[in-house]
Design brief:
alpha+beta
């Protein structure tokens, strides 16, 4: 595997593993403080890092039993596309949820995400 692939793979492993462990503060450490973060692809990006933090700081309270897998689909120096699948249980109603999604990310030289956009489908 080449160095560029390894950079993206290292990032996605840390992002997904910290999510699985419900460690939202660790998840936020994978993001640059000036990240353009799109929670939903048709909405404007979060206005600030505080908005991103507000999205993540409820994760430990609203989900559990997370399992995931991912595949880096395509990448170059500027962008990486990742297909990911997840199962989780929503704590509010104990319903198991399946998700299939796509992340589009860009990383800076420090390996932090500067652009994040996701598409996801749940059942």
């Amino acid at each position: 595997m080449n160095e560029l692939f390894m950079r993206y793979d290292t990032w996605i492993k840390e992002f997904m593993e910290s999510w699985k462990e419900l460690d939202w503060e660790r998840t936020l450490k994978t993001l640059d403080k000036n990240v353009r973060y799109y929670e939903n692809p048709i909405d404007a990006p979060c206005a600030s890092f505080e908005d991103v933090t507000n999205l993540w700081n409820v994760v430990a309270d609203n989900q559990k039993d997370i399992n995931y897998k991912y595949e880096i689909v395509v990448y170059d120096e500027k962008t990486c596309i990742i297909n990911w699948q997840m199962t989780r249980t929503l704590t509010s109603n104990n319903v198991k949820q399946e998700i299939d999604g796509i992340f589009q990310i860009s990383l800076n030289k420090e390996g932090l995400c500067t652009f994040f956009k996701q598409w996801r489908f749940s059942r």
